[in-house]
Amino acid sequence: MDIDRVAGEEVCCLDTEQLQLPEVSSFVLKENPQLPEVLFSQWLSLSDTTRLVKTLIDDAKAGNPINIPGISANVSVGGVNSLPSMFPAGSAPPISPRSSSGSPRTSKQKTSPSSLRSPLKLVRESEWEVIPQFYFRNGPPAASALKEQCLSRINHLFNNDLDGLLIDEFKPVTKIVCKLPSFFSDVLFRKIDVDCTGMVTRDAFVKYWVNSNMLTLDTATQVFNILKQPDCRYLSQSDFKPILRELLATHSGLEFLQNTPEFQERYAETVIYRIFYYINRSGNGRLTLRELKRGNLIAAMQHADEEEDINKVIRYFSYEHFYVIYCKFWELDTDHDFFIDKENLIRYGNHALTYRILDRIFSQVPRKFKSNVEGKMCYEDFVYFMLSEEDKSSQPSLEYWFRCLDLDGNGVLTPNELQYFYEEQLHRMECMAQEPVLFEDILCQIVDMIAPEVKNLVLSNTLESSSFCVSSHLQRHFLLQREGYITLRDLKGCKLSGNVFNILFNLNKFVAFESRDPFLIRQEREEPTLTEWDRFAHREYIRLSMEEDVEDVSNGSAEVWDESFEAPF
């Protein structure tokens, strides 16, 4: 008999509350953890216990119901069971009196089903329950109806071409079966034609799209898997070039660029830079699947594929937006070496920016330059700057300018840092014979924009004190209310955060905000979907177009077009 082996296995997981020793106090058992094991071993050595265990084992093997004396529902009121006792008659220590309301342990034993079981419980082995697979690395398999529908479309498109489809014939498969933009046709074809045979057969397409479960993935994941390199878990800027080349070659709204490959390349670069500016929030140049899903790029791609007028696709693909960005860069790049230095950038916006903010930009604090030339920014750096400057309400722009103002890089803006940048603004207002606005008033205005409850404290403290000392009063009010700083989270939670930056380092926009046109305010309310960048790009494109028309008229006749002066756009 393997009673000793069974005892050895059970002792290691023994529950002292299931021993049911009324002769021994529970306090003694808890204070002496080894005592239950000793008592249990001695109990097993008794002849009555051995006989009981053998009977239970025989009943278990025979499949009979297991009846343990004293552990059934008919437990005596006194709590004494018929199991062999460890103590001789009359020598058992007294047990503690039970409370009438019942102790927590007693109530637990009454309500818990486990309290009615023996530590030597032997139950009939239950049947194994098969858990269906719930994780699929390449996505869940397609439902039968969906798979049959997809195969029917594939058979229809590949019916007349038994050998397969060429790259020029593959576009209907991309649109109808894959439901992807048509300019994904080339990159999808090459993704399947790994051997570069120049043809995709039906079996090869079914293996890639249906058997690998690409069919069941969401559109963002499909695009991500198609564009990314085999061993990468992110998208780089070069991964978008194939689809943009096909877009330029096939879109009716971009046909006029086919004779100017240089500007086709610039357009593609600008689109890629805008995509990474808004979607690659980490700023490391590696676009992850999570970032792609959180952005609006997929919807913009679908819109660009369906819309004939590319300028109506204002997200990323608008040619007018590219035109504005590139013309601005070309105007500032006087020597046309495709680099801009600090003296070039100071002319941006009719000298709107201060030298102090330009120093921060060229110190590469908000973003590391890609130019690899000391003291100069390249076209990509300028795109990031211009998008941040003209739309300070976007999340990337707020982060860009917040890093510029954060002089010590501790992640917060203090009154001293705000005053440092405003000092030059104040000096410029005095030089332009404008009425200067003191920093104390500016700080109250900034606080009013970001946190109105802080403004009340500022005003109350101002009324109490006749003199307004920046080093004492402002510091004290910030320490009392906000621990002396403004965070990036505060700016992101405010719709007027862009005006805060304009107040500190863009004089032209600061003055325009103070004397804003009610007509423009009403126009913004009528078109809430348009961003500040959309409105700026539209105004600038009209202005640049008018200037170009005037230049064309001045250089030749209105009826006779001189091609030597024709713009490459």
Automatic annotation (TrEMBL):
Gene3D superfamilies: 1.10.238.220, 1.10.238.230, EF-hand. Residues 88-106 have a biased composition (Low complexity). InterPro entries: EF-hand-dom_pair (IPR011992), EF-hand_13 (IPR041534), EF_Hand_1_Ca_BS (IPR018247), EF_hand_dom (IPR002048). CDD domains: PPP2R3A_B-like. Residues 88-119 are annotated as: Disordered. Residues 393-428 form the EF-hand domain. Keywords: Calcium, Metal-binding. This is Serine/threonine protein phosphatase 2A regulatory subunit B''alpha-like isoform X1. It comes from Populus alba x Populus x berolinensis. The lineage of its organism: Eukaryota, Viridiplantae, Streptophyta, Embryophyta, Tracheophyta.
